[in-house]
Design a protein that fits this description.
428 residues; 51% helix; Aminoglycoside 3'-phosphotransferase, Chain: A, domain 2; alpha+beta; Phosphorylase Kinase, domain 1; binds 5-S-methyl-5-thio-alpha-D-ribofuranose; 15 helices; single chain; binds magnesium ion; disordered N terminus; 2 domains
C-alpha cells in the first residue's frame, strides 16, 4: 500500500483524478485515459466523502475522511485517524471473514483515504428493506461475519498478550467511541441541542424518557459496559446502512467505529435495525397486508440471526479455543467437559442479555437522537411515522429495563409481533 506524502487535503473531483492517475494499480483497474473517468461523490453517510470512479476497464470506490462530521459541518471537528482504524479493522475482518468485506486496493494515511473494490450491483441493505426486499443469504453471511470476527479476536481465541496488543492498537479511536457514548448512551435521555424526534406527536414520549429513572439506570449500565468491556474487535456501527447486499452477496462496510468492545453491541445493532425495519414497514404499506410476507421474513430473520450466530460462535469455541481464557487444563475428563459446556451456555446467555440491551439502546437513539434512519424517515405522513416509532420505543424500553423478561430471541419477536398493531397515545 502506497503512503501519501505531504499534508492532508480534501480531494474533490479534479484532485482525485490526478491522484488516482498517479497510482499504476488503480489506473490499470480503471483503464482508459484519466480524463475519461466518471467521478461521482455518492456519500450519504454522516461522516465522510465517498466517490465512485468508473473507467472503461472497471470501477473503484474511494472513501476520504473529512476533518469534521459531515452531517453537522466544520463546527464539529473529528480526527482523521478514524480512516487508519477503519483500514486496520477492514484488514483484520478480511482475514477472519474472507469475502464478507470489500477488497482493499490502496490506503493513504496522510490523506485519510482508502480505495476499495466497487461493490456493484450491491445496494445499502437499509434501502432494500424500505422497499420490502428479502435477502435470503443475509442470515448465513452476517452470522459468519459476526461469529468469526468476534470469536477470533476474543480471549477465547487469543493469548492474553496478543489480545492486549490488539486492544492497544485500537485504543486511539476514542473520538469515535465518544460519539457513540454521547449519541447513543446519553443524549436521547436528556435535553441535548442535537436531539430531534417526530414532533409534536412524540413530544410526550421524549419528555417521558428524560424522567424515566429505570431507563436512566439501564442505559447507564449499558454505557459502562460499552466503555469498559474490551471483549473483542467490534465493528462498532453494524447497522443496515453499513451492510451492502445483492440477493447472493453480503458485504460489511464502514468499520470506522471499530475498537475492542462488547460483542453484544454488534449483534444488538443488527437485531435493532431489523426490528426497526419491521416497525417501519407498516408506515410504508400502501394497502393493508401488502408487506405482511416481508414483515414475517424480518422477524424470522431476527430469530435466525441470533440462533445462527450463537450456533456458529459455539461451534468455533468447541472446535478448539486457543485463547488464554478457560484453560483446557482446568477442564479435563468427562466432568470437566460437561462443566465447560454448561459454562459456554451461560456465556451465551449473558451475551444474549447484552445483545437485547444494546439493541434497545440502538433503537431509541434513532428515534430521539441526532442521527435517524430512512426506515422511519421515509414514512411520508409524520403521524404514521410517529406510530411506528412509538411501537419500536415501547419494545425497546421493555428490552432495556426488563431484559430478564426476554430470555430467548422468540420473546423479542413475540413482543414485536404483539406491538405490530398497537395504537400509541400521541401528543397532538
Ligand atoms: C455524528 S455521527 C452519527 C452517527 O453516524 C454513524 O453512522 C454512527 O452511527 C454515528 O452514531
Ligand atoms: Mg458509517
Amino acid at each position: 500500500m502506497a503512503q501519501g506524502q505531504g499534508d492532508y487535503r480534501i480531494l474533490h473531483e479534479a484532485a482525485l483524478r490526478d491522484y488516482l492517475a498517479g497510482l499504476p494499480e488503480l489506473k490499470a483497474i480503471l483503464g482508459g485515459e484519466p480524463a475519461s473517468w466518471a467521478i461521482t461523490e455518492v456519500g450519504d453517510g454522516n461522516l465522510n466523502l465517498v466517490f465512485i470512479v468508473n473507467g472503461d476497464g472497471g470501477g473503484i470506490a474511494v472513501k476520504q475522511a473529512l476533518p469534521y462530521v459531515r452531517l453537522v459541518g466544520e463546527s464539529w471537528p473529528l480526527p482523521l485517524s478514524r480512516a487508519h482504524y477503519e483500514y486496520l479493522a477492514l484488514s483484520r475482518q478480511a482475514q477472519l471473514a474472507p469475502g464478507l468485506v470489500p477488497a482493499l486496493l490502496h490506503h493513504n494515511e496522510t490523506l485519510a483515504l482508502t480505495v476499495m473494490e466497487l461493490l456493484e450491483p450491491h445496494i445499502i441493505m437499509r434501502k432494500g428493506l424500505v422497499a420490502a426486499t428479502r435477502y435470503l443469504r443475509f442470515v448465513d453471511d452476517i452470522t459468519t461475519f459476526m461469529a468469526r470476527t468476534l470469536f477470533f479476536t476474543s480471549d477465547l481465541a487469543r493469548s492474553a498478550a496478543e489480545k492486549k496488543e490488539a486492544i492497544a492498537a485500537f485504543a486511539g479511536n476514542h473520538a469515535l467511541c465518544k460519539i457513540t457514548e454521547d449519541l447513543i448512551f446519553t443524549d436521547p435521555y436528556r435535553i441535548a441541542e442535537q436531539n430531534r424526534w417526530t414532533a409534536p406527536y412524540l413530544d410526550g414520549l421524549a419528555a417521558s424518557l428524560r424522567d424515566d429513572m429505570d431507563l436512566h439506570v439501564a442505559i447507564s449500565r449499558l454505557k459502562l459496559k460499552f466503555m469498559a468491556s474490551p471483549e473483542a474487535l467490534i465493528h462498532g456501527d453494524l447497522h443496515t446502512g453499513s451492510i451492502m447486499v445483492t440477493e447472493n452477496e453480503t458485504r460489511v462496510i464502514d468499520p470506522e467505529f471499530a475498537f475492542y468492545g462488547p460483542m453484544g453491541f454488534d449483534v444488538g445493532a443488527v437485531l435493532a435495525n431489523l426490528l426497526m425495519a419491521y416497525f417501519a414497514s407498516a408506515g410504508h404499506a400502501r394497502a393493508p397486508g401488502e408487506r405482511a410476507a416481508f414483515e414475517a421474513w424480518v422477524l424470522e430473520t431476527v430469530e435466525q440471526v441470533w440462533t445462527e450466530f450463537a450456533r456458529k460462535f459455539l461451534d468455533l469455541w468447541r472446535a478448539g479455543a486457543a485463547g488464554d481464557a478457560y484453560p483446557v487444563s482446568l477442564f479435563g475428563g468427562e466432568n470437566g467437559a460437561r462443566r465447560l459446556e454448561a459454562e459456554r451456555q451461560s456465556y451465551m446467555q449473558r451475551l444474549f442479555a447484552d445483545t437485547v440491551g444494546f439493541a434497545a439502546a440502538k433503537t431509541i437513539r434513532r428515534i430521539f437522537g441526532l442521527a435517524h434512519n430512512i426506515d422511519f424517515e421515509l414514512i411520508e405522513h409524520p403521524k404514521q411515522r410517529a406510530v411506528s416509532e412509538a411501537r419500536a420505543v415501547r419494545l425497546a424500553r421493555a428490552m432495556m429495563v426488563e431484559t430478564a423478561a426476554f430470555p430467548a430471541i422468540a420473546d423479542v419477536t413475540g413482543a414485536a409481533r404483539k406491538l405490530r398493531d398497537w395504537q400509541p397515545e400521541l401528543t397532538s
